[in-house]
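Re: beginner question about structure tokens

> Can someone show what the tokenized structure looks like for a real chain? I only ever see the sequence side.

Sure, here's an example I had lying around. Input first:
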Amino acid sequence: MRRTFFGLLLVVSFCVPAAWPRDKEVPPPLFIAPEFRFSQVDTICVAPAIDLRADKTEPLNLSGPGERHGLILPDHIESVDTRLARDFKKIGYQTVSCSPVNATLGDLKIPTDTWLGKLDFGESRWLFILAVEDVSAEYKRFWPQQGSVGGYAVVSGYLFQRQATGVRLVWRDRVVGRSRGELMGRKRTVKLAESDFAIGEGAICLLRKFEMRPQNKRIPSMWCVWDENKTETFDATCNVVWTALNDILKNSGKYDVIGIADSDMMAIYAIGGAGDRAEHSIDHVVLKSKENSCVMRITETAHITLRNDVGNLNKLVRASLSK
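And the corresponding structure tokens:
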């Protein structure tokens, strides 16, 4: 009883949807096949989530019951796999189980015919894979302040279609999930819980970009939201803008780079320079070519207390290009 009571506690603010930011525009995915329509999807085989972190020192709870903890949450932290299948059903997609996937990020982003041929779709024509790319969990020895950030997770999602002629990738995206819990307890248990919440929200952010069924159905307001989604168009090629953007993110001292993907022209970064990323606002920026110009989209990962000036990076890039 003593361990249960002093295990892991969650303050009421985490459970109150009214405290969350209002829903905003949903950013587009990194890739969607031109002829693909969500109406084509019947059942989806949801593969077990895979851990593709460069550093796997900290444990994760992707499947099966998690750590036992305190009074407010259930007896065990619910796994990412369990929540993902349930949340698919919430937006109108029936799921079936399938075998684990053996993959690298390269396999997922640019799949070869050999690798595609090894995928198990179960009894479905559609396969969804969730990959965890990076996780950072915060631990505070004493009771955290209300509204503090517990951590973040970078996750990516991939939807594959099985056809008579073979298997193809039809949808892909990468997002940042944040933990909004103010947790207290044993260090190992708290960090596992914060990581799990962040990964779970990242998965929800991916599902927010799926078509709802029926189309007028809305995901509950407590699901993933983006506080700001701003675009800026530059009269330059994206290669030129990408070079300027990289220089600013890496050398200005204003940002802490979490991940750079040259092939996607996508960067994930924390506001405020080097330091405790879990306590900083974390945004991501994507470049897309449009005719003879380049469109830069900055997406702020919303949080109750943290806010960004999303226009600041636009100004810095424009100033760099004008030199």
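Each token stands for a local structural state, so reading them left to right follows the chain. Confidence is low (pLDDT under 50) at residues 1-22, 69-74, 144-149.
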